[in-house]
Structure formats: C-alpha cells, structure tokens
Amino acid sequence: MGSLIERVQGEVADSDERPLVLDVVDGESDVVLDALAADTRRRVFRALFDEPGTASALADDLDESVQTVHYHLSELQDADLVERVDTRYSEKGNEMAVYGPASDPIVLVGNEEFAPAVERSMTRIVGGVGLLAAASLLVQFGVERLARGTRLSGRAAEPASAVDGVAPDGTLANLLLDVVEPGLAFFLGTLVLVAALVVARR
C-alpha cells in the first residue's frame, strides 16, 4: 500500500474528527485564542496536527526542552485543544502519554445564530470525508488482492504463454497498480465529483 494511502489510513485511525465551532464573542473563544497566543504553543499545536506524539518526541522535533513542551501541552489541554489519545512505553518501560488535537477542524464564526448550523454542516462534511477515506482503503485493499490473484494465475500460465509469445495475464493490471493507487484515485475522483455537483446546483 502506498505511502499516501497509509497516511490517509493513519489519519482515519488516529485523528479525532470532532469539529469545534466557536462564536468569536463567546468566552470559550477567548480561552482558545489566549491559549494560542504564544508562538511556541502554536508550534506544538501545529505539530500535533501533523502527527500525534509524546512530549519527548515533540521536544526533539521542535528543539525545545521536555519541560517547556509539557507546560504548553498542559495549557492546551486546559483550553480543550489537546487531549491524550494513546499510551506508549519507553525503552526503559516508562509509560508515556501520546497527545493529539481534541477537535478537527476548529472554526470561528462571527454570528452566534449561525454557530449551530455551521457545526451541523462541519459534522456532516467531516463524517462524509471519513467514510470516503474508509471506502478508499477498501477499494485499495480489494484491488491489491485481485492483482495478487491475477499475478499468481499469470505465473502458473507463464510457460504456456511464453511458448505462444504472449505476455502473462494481468501484466497491464499490475503495471497500472504500480503507477496509480486505486484507493487514492477513488478518493480524489469522488471529491472532484461531489465538488462538481455542488457547483452545478448553485
């Protein structure tokens, strides 16, 4: 399975796809904006969107001390922007918390009357993308299994094919699988189709 599909699979498994919709005049948005005011804290937060990680891993990636990263993680947790998503163990057997974003995406709205509608829309969009990603993984898995079966059949028939001067069955399918990831093509193609339908309905 290709690297891009693996990243999609990792995001489906690891990320918390709960949208957070905040009214800019609400006190909760003040807490979030204050928590993201510090540059180092924003760097920690952005890094967690790239990949959930432990405090020590974040410290290495950001060239900061573990104590500094722990402090900023604590502040982000207090603002409900970051949460513990997993547990890992060091080589010495010490338990380490893995942190990740508590919400994704985060949306600020200027009119509190729009907030519920925006939240419902974002929930549907995020849920739809998640289902599409899962379907893309199934497509990728199914095509790879089919290609493996075709490849085995082709090898079994190879002596006869070689005599006739004909390439084994499935060569073209396997070549296409090496060039194009079916799951990724399905994912992007469906997104383009949905976008076209939305534009056409306007």
From TrEMBL:
Domain HTH arsR-type: residue ranges: 31-115
Source taxon at top rank: Archaea
Transmembrane residue ranges: 125-143, 183-200
Alphabetic keyword roster: DNA-binding, Membrane, Transcription, Transcription regulation, Transmembrane, Transmembrane helix
Listed InterPro entries: ArsR-like_HTH, HTH_ArsR_DNA-bd_dom, HTH_MetalResp_TranReg, HVO_1552_C, WH-like_DNA-bd_sf, WH_DNA-bd_sf
Keyword Transmembrane helix: yes
GO MF, one annotated term: DNA binding
UniProt keyword Transmembrane helix, yes or no: yes
PANTHER family assigned: TRANSCRIPTIONAL REGULATOR, ARSR FAMILY, TRANSCRIPTIONAL REPRESSOR SDPR
Protein name, per record: ArsR/SmtB family transcription factor
